[in-house]
Amino acid sequence: MPRPPSSPSLADQHGAPGGVAAVDRAATLLAAFQLGDTSLSLTELAARTGLYKSTTMRLLASLEHAGLIRKLDDGSYALGAEIARLHAVYAASFSLERVVMPVLRELVAETGESAAYHVSQGTARLCLYRVDSPNPIRDHTRAGELLPIGQGAGGRVLIAFDETLGRKYGKGKDAPLYASIRQQGYCAVQGDRLAEVAGISAPVFHQDGSLAAALTLIVPAHRYDERHIEPTVRAARKLSTLV
Prior knowledge:
Blueprint: H1 10-13, H2 21-31, H3 42-49, H4 53-65, E1 69-71, E2 77-79, H5 81-93, H6 96-111, E3 114-121, E4 124-131, E5 146-148, H7 152-161, H8 163-169, H9 175-184, E6 187-190, E7 197-205, E8 211-220, H10 229-240
Helix pairs in contact: 2-4, 6-10, 7-8, 7-9
């Protein structure tokens, strides 16, 4: 009889409430593949997921039958062609607005302040999406407006985490500032763009690790609250799993 693993598998630790255990386990096998992996051995897959090798083999057989996994001549496993087909379907139906706006609304509901999604646009930054604070006293920047790339929390985050922008704008006397932003994972500033406005911003990354945007909470300076840093960073991390 096989000896039970010393710790629960990833699927057992993070299974969907009310879900199907076998599906959770199969999903962890697919998620075991990371950028740079051309193929993984049975041993590597079992180690990364915490599953028995015997369980891993049975799940791989089903995934292979579905075209989600393919077994190579050397006995290792790679992602199958069905993954590419599903990605094409996903890409065709993907709407960035439908992904970003709910997260911005959640952040506004939690903090009571305005939230925006900024992307770099040449020598400026574009406010691509925004949800306003319910408070009558607020910054009135609108979606579609261009803002300075080197001012404000959102612009600072774009420079800190984008290599191209960093080489252009993040050198010299400002280099320590951007190093600090990268180290702490966010930027919180008051009066940087406008004297009456504060901002908290955190980076949103694509799945390949490149910078997608800056998620920014925009706050009147007199209402600035450091307790809003954590939910802003959390929202940016959530978007990083979606974009």
